[in-house]
Write a structure and sequence with these properties.
The chain has 5 helices and 15 strands.
Length: 313
């Protein structure tokens, strides 16, 4: 009798917690943006106000979205080259900030609802919105870097979870399958499809690999506003019947976990962490809905994206 092959998923049933857990470091001062760079409306006050823009972009906005998305993709590729053991997330923020303003754009997270930094860096069990600080990356960490740029009146938003040095099998599976889940969601986009089709595709893939799906943070409309009123859940709920329309621009950014997707916030009121301290990963693209498919806006003019360039199988 042939020996039954043991599934990869079965070998990963007992998932350890992060050890040591991530703890807050020292957060440096907010970085400055040259006066001549165009700013989003919230840059001075920190308050974006209620979302009022249309979910569907006009032709000029779409062309601007392509330019902003391509720049965001190039900056995220740049950020990936900075990831290494011993590097602090604050130094990554500094270099990415300088790269964005060098290109004539504004780092969208900066002072959005008071957020103090120019990128988000979420390590290990941090689900999202990690604030760059003095903590150095360690061999075996995973870190999501979330880059958004404001250029020509619109935002381009993208993120990747990078592996730092040699990571364990659990983390490698998590990163790989979160990336795949994002593309499963992207594959469900077409004119007339309900928003729930995206969440169904993502959650189905996550369940196949016994990964949790975070519900508290979802994808969103993006364009002239950093976050417009359109909501893109990454889990399936048949009640999410909003139809996708040609010309809509939005993010798909699933956050999957090795354990429970339950979470809590640090005292900084930004950093979301898994309640069981097991690791989380996230990938994100900005999309444009067409009649039959989605166009990924956050790729370089050559079609590159950090999700593929830095992929480790």
């Amino acid at each position: 009798m042939a020996k039954r092959k043991r599934s990869r998923t079965a070998t990963l049933e007992r998932v350890p917690v992060s050890d040591p857990p991530v703890r807050p470091g020292l957060v440096g001062p907010r970085r400055r943006v040259p006066r001549e760079i165009e700013r989003p409306p919230y840059a001075r006050t920190g308050e974006p106000g209620p979302a009022t823009s249309s979910a569907v972009r006009n032709a000029d906005e779409i062309e601007a979205m392509r330019r902003a998305g391509q720049m965001a993709a190039e900056v995220l590729l740049f950020a990936g080259r900075l990831v290494a053991p011993g590097v602090t997330t604050d130094s990554i923020d500094a270099e990415v900030h300088d790269e964005i303003v060098r290109r004539g754009a504004y780092p969208s997270p900066l002072n959005y609802r008071g957020y103090p930094k120019s990128v988000c860096t979420s390590i290990n069990e941090v689900i999202c919105h990690g604030i760059p600080d003095s903590r150095a990356l360690a061999d075996g960490d995973i870190v999501n870097i979330d880059v958004t740029v404001f250029l020509d009146g619109v935002h381009g938003d993208t993120s990747v979870t990078f592996e730092v040095g040699e990571v364990d099998d659990h983390s490698r599976l998590l990163v790989r399958e979160t990336r795949t889940a994002m593309y499963q969601g992207i594959g469900a986009v077409r004119n007339g499809a309900p928003v729930s089709a995206i969440g169904k595709a993502i959650e189905s893939h996550a369940r196949l690999h016994r990964l949790g799906v975070v519900r508290e943070f979802i994808g969103h409309g993006v364009g002239t506003e950093f976050h417009s009123g359109l909501q893109i859940p990454h889990y399936y709920d048949r009640a999410h019947t909003t139809p996708l329309e040609t010309g809509m621009t939005f993010t798909i950014e699933p956050m999957l976990t090795l354990g429970s997707p339950n979470l809590y916030l640090w005292d900084d009121e930004w950093t979301a962490v898994t309640a069981d301290q097991r690791r989380s990963a996230q990938f994100e693209h900005t999309l444009l809905c067409h009649d039959d498919e989605a166009e990924i806006l956050t790729r370089t003019p050559a079609g590159e994206g950090a999700a593929e360039v830095y992929a480790k199988e």
